[in-house]
Specification:
With 215 residues, the protein is mainly α. It contains eleven helices and no strands. The two termini are 28 Å apart.
Length: 215
């Protein structure tokens, strides 16, 4: 373990802990009060995020909402609108498929997720049922909607920092489901050892790279 870098992480945590708590409060409000439209907007955001900037993805979703396209436009129309998102053609198709399934279809996101007791079970259901979302994106959705705050969101910022800390030896070139769960467990062990809430650790590591607390 790189104790010097861990010390820096702990200092950053103390500096931004109140801001993290405030942001988590926002997610908890979404869990309590969000309707189908807001939950689907968060799902669309997470469908867009693979290999793309989170800020650009949220800008894309917000633009679709503003132009009243998110719930009615075709994949082709959406693709043209989200040119700031990488792999926009595929992601537009994934969005429309999810919309047909979870917004217009018989499957209600909130009801389905509430059938499962743990975050791991909720994530597994999402992973198996939402095309275009891996474990990272499923974890991200559950965190942003307050359904579970303690799952690891293993994006490049997080992987870089946990490598620097010595939690893992190197940033993996690809992450299988098994590898993802192994790294997540190591993060959970670290969070417990150093008394940083798992729900806070992701924000601290993301802040180290991005310089902000976003979503």
């Amino acid at each position: 373990m790189n104790l010097e870098y861990v010390s820096e992480i702990k200092k950053t945590y103390l500096d931004i802990r109140d801001d993290i708590k405030s942001r988590i409060g926002d997610f908890q409000e979404i869990y309590k009060n969000a309707g189908r439209e807001e939950l689907f907007a968060e799902l669309a955001f997470c469908i867009f995020t693979p290999q793309s900037s989170a800020r650009q993805c949220w800008k894309a979703v917000s633009g679709l909402i503003e132009k009243k396209m998110l719930f009615i436009s075709s994949a082709e129309e959406i693709s043209k609108e989200i040119n700031i998102v990488r792999f926009r053609n595929n992601k537009a198709r994934y969005l429309v498929e999810a919309r047909d399934k979870f917004y217009f279809g018989k499957t209600d996101l909130r009801s389905e997720l509430l059938k499962y007791r743990t975050g791991y079970e909720k994530r597994k259901w999402l992973y198996e049922n939402v095309k275009g979302m891996g474990l990272k994106e499923c974890s991200h959705f559950l965190r942003n909607t307050g359904f579970d705050l303690n799952l690891a969101i293993l994006d490049r910022h997080i992987l870089k920092n946990i490598t620097l800390m010595g939690i893992i030896d190197e940033v993996p070139k690809s992450i299988s489901e098994k590898k993802y769960l192994e790294i997540e467990k190591k993060m959970e062990d670290f969070a417990e050892k150093y008394n940083i809430e798992m729900s806070h650790l992701d924000f601290v590591l993301w802040y180290r790279e991005a310089g902000e607390i976003f979503k």
